[in-house]
Structure formats: C-alpha cells, structure tokens
Design a protein that fits this description.
There is one protein chain. The protein has 185 residues and is an alpha+beta fold. Helix 4 links the parallel strand 4 and strand 5. 37% of the residues lie in helices and 16% in strands. The longest helix has 21 residues. The protein is built from 5 helices and 6 strands. The protein has a 4-stranded mixed β-sheet. Strands 1-2 form a two-stranded antiparallel ribbon.
Length: 185
C-alpha cells in the first residue's frame, strides 16, 4: 500500500504532465488523403467559422476490397429508357473499373443487368441481359479477361429504388458490378 504522501505526489505529477501537454502547440495532422486537420484538443486551431472536416484516412476502405471498389470506383452505371447503350457520362466510371480490375487481377466480377418495372418480365430480362453484356464488352475491349466476368439479368426483379416515379425508374435502369471473389477483406 502506498503512503498518502506518495499518492498526492503522483497525482500532482499527473496533473502537471496533463497541463503541459494541453499547453504545448501541436502541428496539424496530415491525413494521408491530401487533407490536413488540426490536432484534437488544441484551441490554437479551433476555428468555429471553418467548414466541418470531412474525409480522411480513418475508416477508409482497405485497398483491393469490395468496399474500396464501391466507394472509390463505383459499382453501378445507369441507362436510358429501353436502351442498353452506355451513356457518355458513364465512361469515366467504366475506365475507373478497368483500372481497378487491372490493379487487382485476382478479382472476379459479375455484371448484373437491371430494368425498371415497366414492360413485361421477359422483355426486362432480355434488356437487363443486354445491359450487362454492354458493360462486360466495354471491360473486355479494354483488356479485362472475359474469364473474370460473368453476367446475369435480374430484369425488374431487384429494384434499388421503390416507387413508380421517373426518378425511381431511372435508378432501376442499371448494371451493377458485383465482386464475386479475389477482393481483400
């Protein structure tokens, strides 16, 4: 058992160390993601007029993971009504998918073609298949091995947006690139 005087001294030392640490200016922290954030608990950097800090490496997806693909590349492209032609605005996402798949050659994927609820089940299954195939063809033409890519059509059976509005229809007309295997955990 410690003497009360020893406990008082240890408490005083602990308070002194805490006070010194609180008064010591610290430099902003580089998050590694091109952003610099102020250190926590340092009033020198607390500027309540500044915008909130977003992004950073904390909780960032592991490189080569499914989450990395979804967050940093994008796993879905959208189509016009009754069309399976890739729209010009999806090319950057498609090129990003190509680059990611080249970087991680052990990953296999499945392209899932989808349609909105309008039209017959058979029509939408065929349209979803053509959408999946157009994405697959784009990837293969840019060097991704066809053996790494499967396709499937869900037609109108797996909507991502509920409702019968134009906005919901537009969201449901898509091709989703799903990681099947080979991604890091």
């Amino acid at each position: 058992m410690m003497k009360p005087s020893t406990l008082v001294r240890l408490a005083a030392i602990g308070l002194a160390v805490t006070a010194i640490a609180a008064c010591t200016p610290r430099k902003p922290v580089d998050t590694g993601a091109g952003e610099t954030v102020p250190p926590a608990g340092n009033d020198q950097y607390n500027d309540n007029s500044a915008a909130p800090i977003t992004g950073g490496a904390v909780g960032a997806p592991a490189p080569g993971s499914e989450q990395d693909f979804v967050v940093n590349v994008g796993d879905r492209v959208y189509f016009d009504l009754d069309s399976y032609q890739l729209r010009s605005e999806v090319y950057p996402r498609m090129d990003a998918q190509v680059a990611w798949l080249q970087r991680y050659p052990n990953v296999t994927i499945r392209i899932e073609g989808n349609a909105d609820e309008r039209g017959t089940r058979e029509y939408n299954l065929a349209l979803g298949a053509r959408r999946a195939e157009s994405v697959r063809s784009y990837l293969v033409e840019r060097g991704i091995s066809a053996g790494r890519i499967d396709t499937i059509s869900y037609g109108k059976e797996r909507p991502i947006a509920a409702g019968s509005t134009e906005e919901a229809f537009a969201r449901n007309r898509n091709a989703h690139t799903a990681i099947v295997s080979g991604a890091t955990r």
